[in-house]
Amino acid sequence: MLKLTFTTVCLCIAISLFAQVPPTSADQRLKGLEKKSALIAQSVINQIPFRNVGPSIMSGRVVDLAVNPKNPTQFYVAYATGGLWYTQNNGQSFTPVFDSMQVITIGAIAVDWTSGTIWVGTGEVNSSRSSYAGLGVYKSYNRGKTWQYMGLPESHHIGKIVLHPTNKNIAWVAVLGHLYSPNIERGVYKTTDGGKTWKQTLFVNENTGVVDLDIQSKNPSVLYAAAWYRTRTAANFEESGASSGIYKSTDGGNSWKLITNEGAGFPVGKGVGRIGLATAHQHSNWVYAVVDNNFHLPDTAKKMTDTSKYTLTDFKDLSKEAFLALDNKKLNTFLRLRRNGIPEKYTAEIIKEKVKANELKPTCIWDYLMDANTALFTTPIIGCEVYRSEDAGKTWKKMNDKQLKLYNTYGYYFGKIFASAANDDKLVITGFDVELSEDGGKTFKPINNVLTHADHHIAWINPADDQHMIIGNDGGCNITYDDGAHWFKANTPSVGQFYSVTYDMATPYNVYGGLQDNGSWFGPSNHKENPGWMASGSYAFKPINGGDGMQVQVDWSDNTTVYSGFQFGNYMRSNKNRRASVDEPDADAVPGESESSIKLVTAANAKEDSTIYIHPRGDLGEAPLRFNWQTPILLSRHNQDILYYGSNKFQRSLHRGEDLETLSNDLTTNPPQGNVPFGTLTTISESPLRFGLLYAGADDGSLHVSFDDGYTWQSIQDGLPKGLYVSRVTASAFKESRVYVSLNGYRNDDFKPYLFVSDDYGKTWKSIGADLPYESINVIKEDNKLKNVIYVGTDGGLYVSADNGITFMGWDNGLPFSIPIHDIAIQPIANEIILGTHGRSIYIAPLNEVQTKLKK
Question: What CA dihedral angle connects 280, 284, 285 and 287, to 10 degrees?
Fold first, then answer.
């Protein structure tokens, strides 16, 4: 999207300072893989296997498909963080074929079905918060049995691989480049020797990569490339830029020419976002493009909005006189929208009196409700548009007659178009829905249904029967044979993307966790995946809430009271066995634009089985609170009626989530804001040995300790690297003054492992983990019995130290060689370690044998 007006020079300075940490070089990452292999080889515990307990039912984000056109029951599915899987029975079962490779995150695949050669481009291009950097291109000559590394390590994120139709040695790769830092290794790369060497044939600039490629089916000398300008930092995301556009080559990708110039009919300028391409099959000069148009809607569009009610934008930049002239009835209607969260004590009349007396600013409602996330969803952009050229890219015509509401201001996450090989007027575009056009893009209709997940990234249309399609989305893979009238799931792989994991004290105990775009779930720790559940109709894992599932906490006194929720701090307390029949707040809802019917229960009328919404708000006139994507919550184990909560301030409830109080001032540096929430708490830890001893870390590197249950806080970040994301702070269960902290440079493309320990409550810090590979650290966990044993989860795997971090060993028995581990828990009664992975669901292993070996 275009930079927002409040993205000031101060913000640019703050981003510049934050980005001074240099990105990790390809050489450092590749040497880190050698170190990782050595840590696994020397491990004394690696013969102890993990078992995967699922769940698989919600699947994970699919980014690409490769289907055998002569036998569509054979196809490969590429997951963003779950690896590459193969089926030969139309998705009834799958086999992983990429698990031994150094990186499991995938952006694009291509298959030569005649020879069985597979090409994999690692690192997805959807540019989300969990789009992990790849290491380049891999190739298999034997259908995935063995692999060869083919280079391009600085590519990080690959959008498309195109194979020459007749020359097996020629291929082209669309490289988007680094996510959080500029780099010159972007553009189009071509190989003429099967990937042994590469030539960069298209380069635009260090912030503009190539996100899509397509080749003319009847003339492989003609290719089209979609260049996309996008930058991302911890605080701001630019989704579009003037250097975005479509390039064409007529000499087999050796040279390129920009064809979307001024006057060609295609959007040009700073508002041009992600572009997807599809060449037609019957008309060789036809080319389709879908574009995320970030230019603002014309003023005429604003005049067409409903004038019978106020929306949030009506309160922007109001003068005192203009605010006092607002219609009281419409203002009161707006104030009572539950989603707004404006304190109930305020009415139109009360606010006007305070504005009149200069006790509140006339912009107080805008200031209270507008934050970075709201800004992202309320910017009035044009959005998705479909264009067609009928003269091989010389001129373009917008095809859609009406505005396509396929996505709001997050078109960067989708942006693909597909054309039928049998009918050049039949198109599929992907976004929140998957939509079909049969008139060349003039009109579209959604073809997804209740069996398909939202957020679609890829579609394959059978060239022999274009009613047969396979699609991939944030919930896995779906297949239709009748243009979407009916769908079935092909979701047997256990590829859930867990952000968090925890447990209860039942027998057998249950595991809980939140997943990317798949809500929060719980299920038995002894679960074994088995398709027999489809006969009984009851899957062992059960959902708790929707949206993007975040942190989960369980009250061990009853093992049924659960605290869970979705992104940006929207939490609930509920009974997992008797979920209240209420509508949860829409994860994508915009304050001031929609209303939720969730019941906000106060202490006076709460019942044991009531579902209550937990989301703190300040008072009108105060600076709004800020919330991290993964807002931290923590249930005190000293007193399980106490819930801790972290916005940019520290909140506490003494009554099971009710009456949440803000106890601290801002515990961050209060940095200037862009369009991504920044300056937020990320992690809270409570000492198992001392009630009231708390730690809190933030995304800007701030770290604090409290000795009085959150009433007062002291900064303890001196001696630590500045400006890095505090991914985890962990108070020791063996020594009161000991605390561990991990810092994460992912948002700088810095993958160095930052791990520290303090034995004096954070006054001084000692760096540990010197032998860990270059993989960003997400979590550190102490063993439950051995005081010097710690477990570290990174974006690449699990590591164990028996000497309190001086040296480490790898532990990957039963795991892929590389898998992001976001969370670790240890269930003390069963004495088992639980891994919440971002791409392979949940793994569990026994600790008795581990502890016996580590004692030696």
Answer: 20
